[in-house]
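Researcher: Please generate the 3D structure of the following complex. Treat every line as part of one assembly.
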Amino acid sequence: MIKVAPRMKTATLNHNQMLSRIGMHVSNQIMAYLFLLPALLIFALVAWYPIGRAFEMSFQEVNLRGESTWVNFDNFQKIEDDPASESIWRNSVEFATLSLLMGYALPVLVAILIREMRIAKGFFHIVYFLPTVVPVSISVIVWRFIYDPDAGFLNELLGIFGIEAQRWLRDPDLVKPAIVLVMTWGAFGATTLIYLSSLQEIATELYEAAELDGASPLRRIRHITLPHLAPTMSLLFVLQVLAVVQVFTEPFLLTKGGPGRETLTPVLHIYNRAFLRMDMGYASAWSVALVLFLMVFSGVYQIINRRFNANM
Amino acid sequence: MNRGLLSDIELRTTKGRIYYYSAMAILLLLALVVLFPFVYAFTSGLKNSTEIFKSGLNIFPKDPQWENYSKAWKKL
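Model: Done. Output below.
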């Protein structure tokens, strides 16, 4: 006898049975929400409430005793008048550009190469993922030794080739690439892992067919691998920009925003204003402005991306 | 069949081998760069306080201070 599929069975239920089933469904959901409640409460307390409060404070003047008065858009006006604002936005753009140049294609390349290895795949997985496991605050200590202007490893290494010692973290031209290198080193392992898992999905028959048609390995990458990775690459592009614009730890621990304002990032500025100058209202206004900016960026990127894909 | 971009047959040709081993060379070179801070952190842990600020490419100290690690471990 043919087994009746469960979905067929529900279709033959009468009206009352249906109602009782829906009731069961709702009570099941209530149970589910009860189980979720502790997590939701904690989440509301440590995430949603601060977010809402920051939004509120961005329209307020908050003094040290925690008393707040409404000042409408004064804080946002202060952002515009702040001489640091212009360099902060410029720094963000420069950081994002540099990080894309140095670290956007790298994980794609590494993932494709690792996928190709017949031996020691696991070794390369571990090696390239290792920096991701180390907390940024720890790795920054090592990088500070490497960048040290007097006895740092990098200067000594370049000295062998006759290049004079550079002040990596003090020179306005070098400090951004130096910090982006630390960021890339710390983050590209996770991205490589995402690309690697995406590469696993490619049917090897495609490569086989391409090979039989006489396509060289580079053309196989160009016409099979890269098109397959394109959606992932497009998503990781946004995620990388969002992450880089919000960078805090590296500039905070390596340069404190210096030299001058060369490495002052939005979040570092927010931290300085909120916890050094105790200007919570202004810092909140900056946070809100940053969130709005990043939302607009992601939105515009989505629209452009969709247009572009539709025209393909 | 388990294969990547390159097939097993291609790997037996000279051209395929060039692709494969240059890929491996790139990966090994990059691995060196990626691993370096770890190695540097480890060998710096073997230096004494004057040696750590001494100039010169002294990756591995002349007189490794292994007791640095046992000291750090005991202070945990």
